Amino acid sequence: MFVDAGQYPKSCSARSSRRDYRLQNQEKSGKYDILQRVKPGVSSPFVVLPPSLRISAVNTIVVAPIKSKYENVDIHVTIVGYKDNKSSGIFTQKLRAKRAGAPHSISFELTSPIEKAKITVNVQGHTKFETELRAKPNLAALHIHTDKPIYSSGETVHVRALPLTYEGAVYDGVLEFALVNPDGFELVRKRNQTKDGYIPLAFELPKHLFYGDWRILARPQGSNDEDLTFDAVFQVKDYVLPPFKIIMSISEGEPLDSTNIAVEASNQRRRYDSTKPMQLLQSQVKEEDLSWQNASWLTVGE
């Protein structure tokens, strides 16, 4: 079933992109197949694919044969992986006597670190289905935390990262971390991986640098995919932390974990420059080893 570009009805409201597609192919064959080149009465199976294949994970595709004169059909699925212009067989399976008009799931584990895969589906009484899918690391989320939101030049940025797969397990692949300045330049790169939990890292800030928003950038090794790039933003500025008081109070008869802790900053010290902006970082503190029962206070920095 073919249609000449010149014979295409003028009254048809085809989009310009489809017209361009026909014109590009006219130079090659002069005839166009609107859907695909098929024999009369023969259709392609209905195939549902994921947007990409996940490496080191179980992937699933669904094949639904079209109802025809065959009530039961054979389904043959073949997957070939490609990396560095080399191919290797990944998976092959043949399902026999499967009911037409019903969906059939085929699952397989992708263990090889490939770049892409070619999927071929042959169904009895149907045309062959072929397509290619990219393969990506099985990284669903990468939580990155710094020990402070604000740093000054020359300080050390301590980082903890927790990578998770789509199944909720810890991702054990190699990750690449980078210290990025406000202009987007990656100053330092480090590689790390974990099988137990958090990944600890530390980056030294230069003593001479640009102030502004800095980032810790992380992604799987060898990947530049935006969907697999994660970051944590922190500020670098010239600031002075003033002396402060920690006031602790315990009510009689109350458990120690209900201790009230208040932090009060003071700007009365001479060495503190009150013209600079003061930012207080507040956090919840739980004290376990308290041996006194009355209120007390402590001044830090004296």
UniProtKB/TrEMBL annotation:
<protein>
    <recommendedName>
        <fullName>Macroglobulin domain-containing protein</fullName>
    </recommendedName>
</protein>
<feature type="domain" description="Macroglobulin">
    <location>
        <begin position="142"/>
        <end position="227"/>
    </location>
</feature>
<dbReference type="InterPro" id="IPR050473">
    <property type="entry name" value="A2M/Complement_sys"/>
</dbReference>
<keyword id="KW-0882">Thioester bond</keyword>
<dbReference type="InterPro" id="IPR002890">
    <property type="entry name" value="MG2"/>
</dbReference>
<dbReference type="Pfam" id="PF01835">
    <property type="entry name" value="MG2"/>
</dbReference>
<dbReference type="GO" id="GO:0004866">
    <property type="term" value="F:endopeptidase inhibitor activity"/>
</dbReference>
<keyword id="KW-0732">Signal</keyword>
